[in-house]
Amino acid sequence: MKIILVVLTSLLMSLAALSQGIKGKISDEKTSSGLPGVSILVQGTNNGTVTDANGDFSLNVAEGSYNIVVSFIGYTPKIIPANVRAGETLTLNESLAESSEILSEIVVTGSRSGGRSRIDSPVPVDIIPVSQITNNVGQVDINQILTYIAPSFQSSRQTISDGSDHIDPAQLRGLGPDQVLVLVNGKRRHQSSLVNVNGTVNRGTVGTDLNAIPATAVDKIEILRDGAAAQYGSDAIAGVINIILKTRAGLSGNVSYGQNVTSYDKNYILNSGADESVNVSDGGTAQVGINYGLKIGDKGFVNITGEYVNREATNRTGTYTGQIFPAVNGNVIDDQVMGERGLDRNTFDMRIGNSKVKGGGVVLNANIPVSAKLDVYAFGGYNNKKGNAAGFYRYPNGIPAVVRDNVFAVYPNGFLPEINSDVTDISASAGFRGTIGQWKFDLSNTFGKNDFDYEISNSVNYTQAVTTNNFQTRFKAGGNAFSQNTINLDFGRKFDVLYGLNVALGAEQRTDKYTITAGEEASYKNYDVAAGVAAGAQVFSGFFPQNAGSHSRSSVAGYIDLEQDITKAWVLSAALRFENYSDFGNTLNYKVSTRYKITDRIALRASASTGFRAPSLQQKYYAKTNTLFVTQNGQQVAQESGTFTNDSRPAEILGIPKLKQETSQSFTVGTTIQLNNAFELTVDAYQIDIDDRIVLTNNFSDGGNAALKAQLAAANATTANFFSNAVDTRSRGLEGVLSYNTKVGQNQSLRAVLAGTFIQNKVKKDASGKPIIHASEILEQTGQVNTYFNREDLSRFEIASPKNKQSLTINYKAGKFGIMLRGVRFGEVAYWDPTIDPTKPDTWPVNTLTGQKETLDQTFDAKIVTDVAINYDLVKGFNLSIGANNVFDVYQEKHNHSGNVSLGRFVYSRRVQQMGVNGRYIFARVNFIF
């Protein structure tokens, strides 16, 4: 009731306001032509507008004195004093000078004071002008765009990893996908329902599906590279990604098509290392995006985006060298059978590469002024994508003997089972914002939901095939859903203290819900226990009814955020946030940051903060049995691995510690330097200590424990794994951006950006160099600590993602012609074999390729990927761009780990990746804007 009264009071006050305001025109300083789309904002408020196609604007404001912030990407922003008298309209005609896009744009992430330029911000913030750069890049989704532009951001598409094939996990500063908070227009974005449970990078994490937001709908993305839990809440340990949607009026869009044109050595094991490359054309990607905006009054708008993407699969499989058909009288008969059936080894290829994805979505972004003091706003979207990926090939020789005859009646040459995904993502946010007296307020409700359903095809439940060849081959395996509803009430006000004090405070209530839906009976049921074969659909068995259900939790939070301009040169800010969770209690976090200008061109900045990440509901309640392939005696063996909840009976038997929140401490120090009007530089160093990092353990066997064996059998599993707080970590890094922007002659411009990050992520160790593992006494006593957390887990934290990444981007524009050149260097990565002791060479396995004893550890050297794009303005409003990503067709090194490359199938590692394994990508794009 109080909230309703507040809104009604604001509405009545606004309707009584006198008619006065500000109007004018914003022009380019050199050409004097009007600039469309320039942001006009009353500093410290949400009252603003943008210029029209001629550069004109008008803005309703009440009587009083204001600072008007004028900003536009690529130009130096201005802050203009304005004194508006009752009943009068003030005219402001201003011009903007071109500058670097990197530092001069106004940012809103990390500060509630009404926006500062990047160089004035006390914390490092990257600005990615998505709406501009898409003209020059072949990537069509946000994850890939950011990977090649923002060095601190990394996302590699996964393969042979169940659901992770369909939603790309992403990292910031080499930390987990769930340690970065994602906002849209400043409001919390919900996570995916997917848990990354396979053996890839980011195993055990839950991220946000950035690709569910069409790139066509995005104006820019702000990446806050600093801990911000005290400002925004849980997950903001590595930083914050704020996706800002388009607001412009008019029609724009793009149509693009591209595909991989590449070559790789498919038979490098079969031919004993000889380089016999095969030419491949695949991964064809068609994309269409349309954006239309309509101006509502002086500062209102409705902006709608629609986008469709059809991405074909890619495949970089190696040729299988193992036995294909069952032996006869002890003799391998592969060549004979293949000859009789007109087959060769290519018939038995796996699909190792990008999944096939087809889908699209719509996004709405709207702001409707009710009066000079009250706006109603709403934004949100709907996205659906359907994916298809494959698992390990089930070769005839590997099909259990008890079911072979019946399976061969349907699959005489074995089968390659497929995972079909149906992923739906919806979001909606709406609210009121305005002013009450001298206070601004924002009341909003944000809802988001992600549904991930699985259907398995070209498969079989072996226990159905024991007695019949009329078995099911397609299964509805169930799925997961995650929803989040967040209510925010925020207040802010500027006080005339020293050079200005901004006070922001607010409250938040959030409700999360996670649901597991059971698969149909045949997808999981064991129809013949006595047969001794794996139950459930091959590649991905269905979710059990006993694991199905919904789980929820709620939290409430309150914060205060102060930002004081002590002098014109010195800014000091501080934030404090308290949160209470219904399932694990309270947390209190702080942040302090400062920036001091030594001169007008040189500034120092620093911050210190604490943070936390609540265990996701997915990590608390996910329970499932998956088929994993593990290396035993040099062979790949199928293993039914059950993921059990942390509070389950198997976890209790094994002594798995209880799940709790992660906590962190962060420190950042840096400098911003404007060398002259063309050069700008930022350098920041950071340290992040995270305690009680949550991991997904490795697979525990029953070890002869009858009670545990019974629990596993009930889940159709032979091993068990769990989520647990296993280790503490320390992350250190150095990040820098150097930009150069200049005019060359009358119609030419040159912009170059050199950016880089250097990352050192370490699990904390004792004096002897041994990782400190938070294991229970039971695990210690039974000698199972290495199963709890092993060397491969260690490598995922320390070296499985690039330790450094650098990029150089050059954009040259001459009249209607433009060119973009970009080089991205992905630092080295490594795989560490979990089964060996590096200090005991006598225990190392024999490499079947070399005949030598060696570990399966492998370091992959740094690689440079080069992109080029040429664009031309065909006619007014139309631009054609053609280019190539990875124009020199660079691949990461071939791998020699994971069971001696799994009998030739894996040419490139699926455990660790740098830039993916797709090779050269050729594209063409038509962009239009009216």
UniProtKB/TrEMBL annotation:
Gene3D superfamilies, sorted = Carboxypeptidase-like, regulatory domain, TonB-dependent receptor, beta-barrel domain, TonB-dependent receptor, plug domain
By its UniProt entry, which InterPro entries does this protein fall under?
Beta-barrel_TonB, Beta-barrel_TonB_sf, CarboxyPept-like_regulatory, Plug_dom, Plug_dom_sf, TonB-dep_rcpt-like
Q: Which Pfam families match?
A: CarbopepD_reg_2, Plug, TonB_dep_Rec_b-barrel
What are the TonB-dependent receptor-like beta-barrel domain coordinates in residue numbering? 383-887
Sorted UniProt keywords: Cell outer membrane, Membrane, Signal, TonB box, Transmembrane, Transmembrane beta strand, Transport
Membrane topology per record: Multi-pass membrane protein
A GO cellular-component term linked to this record: cell outer membrane
The subcellular localization recorded is: Cell outer membrane
Q: TonB-dependent receptor plug domain spans which residues?
A: 119-240
Q: Where is this protein primarily located?
A: membrane
- Give the range the annotation lists for the signal sequence: 1-19
The text of the family note is: Belongs to the TonB-dependent receptor family.
PANTHER family referenced in this protein's UniProt entry, alphabetically: PTHR47234, SECRETIN_TONB SHORT N-TERMINAL DOMAIN-CONTAINING PROTEIN
Q: What is this protein called?
A: Iron complex outermembrane recepter protein
